[in-house]
Amino acid sequence: MSAPARILIVTSGPLARNPRVVKEASTLGAAGYDVTVLTPRNHAASEPFDAALCAAAPFCRLPVDLIPGFGLSAWRAFWRLMRHRLARVAMRRFRVPSLHALGPANVILRAARAQRADLTIVHNEVPHGIGLRLLAEGRRVAADIEDWHSEDLLPDDRLGRPLELLRRQERALLQEAAYTSTTSEVLSAALHSQYGGRPPQVITNSFPLQPAPPPRTSARPLEYVWFSQTIGPGRGLETFFAAWKQAAGNARVTLIGEVAASYRQALLAPLEPAQQARIKFTGYISPTELPARLARADVGLALERREPRSRGLTITNKILQYFNAGLAVLATDTAGQCEAMREAGQPGLLVSSNDTAGFAAALTRLENDRPLVAGGQHAARAAAERRYCWEREAPRLLALVAEALGPARRS
Asked: What single DSSP character describes residue 182?
């Protein structure tokens, strides 16, 4: 019997903050492939979460150390950080494009070259550049385009980014990779329209189906929930709280994620003390604990903005986690979220991302119409069971990988 095909997955951050990679690696490992996930170790606080995720995982994690304390000397960590910073300065001041302006490309490329993989799957912008290097060397490479990196981030954050380099990477991957994948039909169509090649295959950001949520009662105040790794500007929260200030009622809001004290203060300052008292910040919650915490709420807030284009076209983890937890959804009308809400039926309400008055009207309606909320919860959970769960996506991933490997190397 031949050895299983070897698959290398290259990403650019902690696994606890990259659930798409974990789902991919777990699915392929469980299917019998020999899977290694190559990831930089660059965030010490995430290390316990990553270790827990990998303890019983059907894949091997290969960390590349970028910070001291895990086997890398302080001097080498300093030099790797300085190379990245110098590349960013060169990009900002002299418009010299470099993959190093985005992260430590060389050290990850060396580690990837050392792995004898039958297929390498690259995630995120630095690994995308590494994937093109491997393609030029004759390796078989596939690419996941979860975010449209050349069309991502707020304007100030785009300064110093090698946008033309990112566009060349995206074009080349769509035309040369064994396959590409992305998160929504509208994002796939936009990438294909921009670059040609083959349209990326859609594998949504859905999650394994969690247990059915417990019965909820309308006797308690309505609870809204919003989550991300980081609570910060540009995520729609400012518009939401401006509307929440206008809406009558006694609903509560739970915000999950890390938040800077200055932003927390700015977010709360316009609100009355009684409203501030109904807002709870929980801090970061691990991926394993998050589904159960979401299921305790009533309505999930999907507050994405139409700009940048990447954010407006994708279907994020957020709205699909709400479907899975059986939450009604209050969503902004980005193209990606309209796609998900349309597929789900009637899981809640859509509002314009810049319409504070419309937001306030929607909040008042949800608070005063608990049957509407209950109906949205039922539709959301049904959509997760029917379409938006990982059990529906895993066969698509396995088929793509099997085709990319060819008949001789399928697991």
From this structure: E
